[in-house]
Amino acid sequence: MKKLKTILFLAFALVTTTTWATTWDEPWQDKVIKHADYFVFAKIKSNNEKKGVTIEIIKSLGGQELKGKIKITDFYLLDLCSSSGGHGAEFQFDGINECYFFIKKNDKGKYCIATPTAGFDYLKDGKVYATYRHSYHQALVPVDIYEKTMTAIFNNYHNQPYDKQFITEYVNKYISLKPAGFGDNEINTFFSQHVALECAYHLRLTDFYPKLLPFLANTSNFHNQVSAARALVSYNTTECKQELLKVISDTTRSHFVQVICVWTLSGFKPTELKEQLKKVNETASNENNGFGGDIMDPRVCTHFPDVKNALEKLIKTL
Q1: DSSP assignment string, 114-125
Q2: Can you tell me the distance from the alpha carbon of 301 to that of 91, in angstroms, rounded to the nearest whole number?
Q3: Contact 195/145 with Cβ under 8 angstroms?
Q4: How far apart are CA 268 and CA 207, in angstroms?
Q5: Cβ count near 197 (within 10 Å)
Q6: How many CA atoms lie within 13 A of 221 on its CB side?
Q7: Top-confidence residue, 19 or 234
C-alpha cells in the first residue's frame, strides 16, 4: 500500500508539474552565448520576481559595452512548455549579490537574459558557479579562470579575437593529467578539466586528440565522457569516427553519452558509416533519456532524444 501511495504521488506530481506549472526547454550554453549582445559582471541592486532584476554594471567583458544601472525585464531564449495560471516565468536572484550576465537587448529595447535559469553565472565565496555546457551541469571555477575562459568563448562566438596562448596552455595543462573524479583531493582538478574540455569544444581546438580519448573512456565519470565526446567535434578523421561509433555501439555505456557521440558524429556527415549506423540502430535504446533531476524543476521539459531517435535522425541525413 505504501508503494502504491508513492507511485500515485509521483504520478500526481508529474501531472501537476507538466500541466499547471511553468516549465521550459532549457537551451545549451553555446546558444545562450551566441545570442547574447553583452557579457558583463554586475552587482544586483534589487529583484522583483515578476518585474525583473536591476543590476549595476561593474565591468564589461565581451560584446558591446554597458555602463551604469540597467533593468533586465525579459528573456531571449524562453521556450515555454507549460504555464501556470497567473504565474509566468519569474526572476530568481534572492541571496545573490554579484553575478556574470549574458544579456541581449530585444527589438523592443528591453534587456533580457536567456531564461530564468540560464544566461547568468553567480559569484559566491570567491568562486563562480559556472555553466560551460548546460545549466543542469555546472562547475565551481576561480574568478580569474572563469573570466579568461568565458571571455574567450564569448569573443570566439562573436568573431572577436581572444587570448589563444592562455587558452592553449590552460587546456593542455589539465587534459594532460589523468582524468579526475569527485574525491576531496581531486574535485578542483575535475572542475579545471571540465573547463578545459568544454573550451576545446566551444573554441574548436585541435592538436589534442590523443589526450581526449582517456576522458571518453573514463566510464566511471559521466561528465568526463560527455565533455570529451563534445570536444572531439574538431577531429573529422576515420579514427575519431570509429571511436565515437564504438561508444554508440556499446550498450553498457550511458545513453546520454551515446547521444552526445551521435551529435558529434553528425557534424562529420559520415556517409561511409551509413550501413554500420543502420546496424547499430537495430539494437539501439529507445528508453527515455535526458538530464534527470527533480520533476518539480521548471527545466523538466528540456528536450533530449533517446539513442534510437538520435541515430535515426542522423541516418536520414546521410
Answers
A1: SBTTBSEEEEET
A2: 19
A3: yes
A4: 17
A5: 30
A6: 23
A7: 234
Q: Which of 58, 25, 37 shows the shortest CA–CA distance to 157?
A: 37
pLDDT given for residue 14 in this prediction = 35
Euclidean distance between CA atoms 216 and 222, whole angstroms:
9
Residue 10, all three cell numbers: 509521483
Reported confidence tier of residue 294, pLDDT bands at 50, 70, 90:
confident
Share above pLDDT 70 across residues of the chain, in percent, rounded to a whole number:
92
Q: What is the pTM of this model?
A: 0.92
The whole-angstrom separation of Cα 307 and Cα 249 is 10
Are residues 43 and 93 in contact, defined by beta-carbon separation less than 8 angstroms? Answer: no
In this structure, are strands 127-134 and 137-142 parallel, antiparallel, or unpaired?
A: antiparallel
The mean pLDDT of the chain is 92
C-alpha cell at 229: 565526446
Residue 314 sits at the vertex; the CA angle it makes with 311 and 315, to the nearest 5 degrees, is: 85
Residue 267 CB neighbours (<10 A) = 11
How deeply is 93 buried, as exposed, middle or buried, from its count of CB atoms within 10 A (0-12, 13-18, 19+)? buried
DSSP string, the chain: -HHHHHHHHHHHHHHHHHHHS-EE-PPPHHHHHHT-SEEEEEEEEEEETTTEEEEEEEEEEEES---SEEEEEEESS--EEE-BTTB------TT--EEEEEEEE-TTS-EEESBTTBSEEEEETTEEEEEEEETTEEEEEEHHHHHHHHHHHHHHHTT----HHHHHHHHHHHHTSPPP-SSTTTHHHHHHHHHHHHHHHHTT--S-HHHHHHHHT-TT-HHHHHHHHHHGGG--SHHHHHHHHHHHH-TTS-HHHHHHHHHHHHTT--GGGHHHHHHHHTT---S--S----TTSTTTT-----HHHHHHHHHHT-
